[in-house]
Specification:
The protein is α/β, with parallel strands linked by helices. It contains twelve helices and eight strands. The protein folds into two domains: about 10-95 and about 275-285; about 100-270, no CATH class. Helix 6 crosses helix 8 (about 215-225) and helix 6 packs across helix 10. The protein is globular.
Length: about 290
Amino acid sequence: MKSDAKIERTPAAYALANVIINEPFVYLEGESDIRYWKNIFQEGTHIRACDGWKKVIETVELVNQKMAQCIGVIDKDFREILPEDEKCPKNVFVSDDHDLEQMMYKTDAFRRIIRNTYTNIEENEIDKLKNNILKIICVIGYVKLAIRRKGIKFEFKKESSKKTNHAHHCFEYPKYEKALIEEKKLTLKDEIDIDVNQLITLIVNYNNAQGKETLIKTAYNEEIKQKYDPWTLGSGHDFTYILRHILLRTQSVCAELETLEEKLYLAYDKFFETELYKSIVDYCKKNTIHII
């Protein structure tokens, strides 16, 4: 991956660099996404983080206007449930599921991570654990969806100031574990649930927006009347957060979220079978873009 450290990180600056360098660029939502994608695209490909999907679209549109070559990749997020106003250019590609991490957890990559941690675990216990985490993050997903549909501008992660072993930016999330209903001495065989009222309260407090609890709970009760694909509804980063909590409670394994996701990336081997990959390859072939 090529680095242009002195280039200002704005859509206009990226687009200008794209034109001046006159080579294909890849635009992603954040720095953490580069961890995975740098292993997918050819060595030497210009990969840039745009600070969110809206800026990915804005940057790609600017580059397209200047007739330079680029692609963008963004998370599906809730756009299958709540279509966004911004339409994606044909060279911006969307993850098959809620995000890239959900695409991975959906496969046997999850099984490989768990087997490397719990040597004596049974197959049915792995499935039970996966389904339990998925159930929890779907509740979180419904709450986020309710908030989004109401047009409430909440954050669900904030850049962390703590130092880690990772060069890219790290994030802090609401402390979802405070809303979990679980045994004091937790084992993998124990079912974990989540208290939606506590969940809403901690998300409201995380955003310093006390007083919105009733509005969000009412909206949540409306949302849960609809059934959505759990892999579309739940966030992969929330999956990692809950998995990390379970590892800590059952194995005293205190891994950074970023470390867990890097293990996930290494365990994932199905990307070349996804619609996302096929769409990128098809576009690049048709437009003679040599990056993948």
